[in-house]
Amino acid sequence: MFSNSTKPGQLAQTLRQEIQTGRLQPGQRLMSINDLSQVYKVSVRTVREALALLEQDGYLACRSRRRAVILTGPPQPEETLIRATLIQRGVVQDAYQTLRGLLPILLWQSGRLMKEADFDQFYRLNKKMIRFKGDHSWILSAQLFHGLLNYSGNPLFDDLYQNLEQACLLPVIPGYEHPYETMARHPQSRDFSTLLQGLQSQAPLAILNRIRHMIDRTQSHVEVYMKQLSGHFDLTMEPAGIFQWQTGPELNQNSKSRQIARSLIQAILSGELPPNSFLPAEKTMAEQYGVSVDTLRRALRYLRQLQFIRTLNGKGSQICDPDLNCFDPLASPASKRNSLTYLCALQLLCLISVPAAASAGKQLDFQQRKIIAARIRQSQNPLGELIDWLAAAQTSSSMSVIVNQIFQFLYAGGPYLYHARKLPAAGLSPDYQLDLEQVLTAMEQGQISEFAHAVYHSFQRLLDSSLDYLIQQGVGEAKRLRLPDVLPRVFLEEESESHSRSAEESFPISFPDGKIRRRS
Question: Which residues contact 208 (CB under 8 A, 6 or more apart)?
Fold first, then answer.
């Protein structure tokens, strides 16, 4: 077996899981090394090392200058496979519930950016899925979701979905009917025309109901599968780990150098490291953080790119006087990439803050709401405190991981954090202060829908101000990330309210050709 602690090990584990779930079939040729590198956002060297691990374990046959061929892998004892599946039971259930909350609003945003002609390819794919006679049509539905999310212009949408999808995959165990194959035999499960019509006509309730129905049915089949597995073995299960969001190298915030950079950014933003002061000598800082001088220099180079520090010959690294207007997002490819990463993270934060706020708000009683609102008001960094609380208050462990991960992504666009986390002396601007007060008032009064929308609006104001600045500087890619001022009410309401709507509201008018005609 291989270790999952390294990037080659993680990629090998992902591909091995896709072979075990039937997503990659024996005899099928794997993608080229370059394609794997692009799809999984890793280096070519990492792909080669992962393929070598899989060949060593009998999952691949590799030949020079040819694509690898999928093999069945080494035979494993049935109890080993069942134990490995059951131990992930909680993670799988949690990932499905997170998808249930996030996928509708992410798809809705993607659909807003699609033109009428863009839907034609998805209607064709849908017809192919309906006609498909094999047990693996569920693979086509995954392709449909990936394709739709790519229209968002935000790579984090599909990256997040891919990771949650990976957490839900289950191995095929001989002698047991796989839940995805069970669903695939019903044509209704393979028909996504209602979802496509809802996206095309921008009918959020149709999107919401179709996704929830799909995930509820899938999860019920998964639960039957798990019960069948657990019924034949008396296994004492250890608690499984939680969902992990494995990102590509351009988004990976977990390296030592990035961790050091984050801690220094926080110290600068809090005023602990004041403007015009100097950092200690590189050797001293390397010893302080327990890293090599090379690692520390990578962290400092990142801070220079973000214009938090500057190097003065003979004096060392000096903290820059914070001024957003001095930051040029086009100064280098790295600064442009960091700026767009920040905007993508902030846009995703705006959208997922809606289900996150609704989930967190429902858990609080009157006294708890008062205490938390007072703590946020008194914080030197109230919006940062709000994000920290949203992450900690999630009942879903995967949702908590996602909120925390997005907050770490924000550090890739460091200068813009001055919008969200002002220095103590500056405080929040009047507009942001008003937004925050609306958030906390709705929280105190227990108005969950109003609370969720106020949280969304407070982050959306930050997004808009940064978008306007980048667009003025010529970063055209930022235009696709703009969000509407008001979200559809259905995304803010209780689930019981959503399902009480009439069928006329839920489903748009359809015609035999599978296309949508907009209502007059």
Answer: 104, 490, 491, 498
